[in-house]
Hints:
This protein has 297 residues and is α+β, with helices and mostly antiparallel strands. It is 21% helix and 18% strand.
Amino acid sequence: MAPTKKERTASRNPSLVRGIGKFSRSKMYHKRGIWAIKAKHGGSFPRHEPKPASAPPPAVKPPKFYPADDVKTPIPNRRKPKPTKLRASITPGTVLILLAGRFMGKRVVFLKQLPSGLLLVTGPFMINGVPLRRVNQAYVIATSTKVDLSGVNVDKFDDKYFTKEKKKTTKKGEGEFFETDKEETKALPQEKKDDQKAVDSQLIKAIEAVEDLKVYLGARFSLRPSHNQVSSSSSATNLTGIVATFAFCFKLKASFPPEAIVLPFLVSVTLTSSGLLLTITEGFRSMEGPAKVLDLD
């Protein structure tokens, strides 16, 4: 809808002749209500500061040249670090399966969670060769197997225990610059070897108390062709589906003509990863034409 044009209102002080109004200046002062505005603000008219015509000049003059390298400024972030939440399926003594790293596929025993959020695990080393190490819980699978850790003491192990010592490097002279560096063999400190033996001796006692647990930890996890991906709990559901398939396949979309000769059922059974695949077809041969096959639901 188009806006309506406002009507022009007459002036409060009509002109008698050109340049001379009907009312005087003091009379118009009263008619316009300026006296009320002045009385409201304590006997003086309110004054507003004028808006600046342009932006104020900067306090510091910008430089004429800028550095060639970009300077990264950190983005403000109010996020505070919180302790990593441990999965409910991982408790002290749970047997885990490593999914990545040097010992991928090995089974290890979870000992405790470190302040950094990483998991402290061990093979033990005497069983499958996995030493005391830290792993991320995102790269493990928790099993239902548990190991009793009542006699295992792991209080001394923290994140600082696994940090590497930084070696001080010295600048080489002209003569040493062209010399080839000799590869030094990194030997594990004797203190860490003793700690590994102490933890293994306590763990192995609890492992040997459970039948076949030592063999289970020593075996590497892997998927084999003989593994059935269908769980045993769903076997009853699969059997019900097979019976329903038989009953459903007997329903035909078309009826047989009177002169048709019904052939025997053709049933083919295929073993797949998700169960048995049944293919049931029924055909008929007409006296006047070639053999036909009916579609089944």
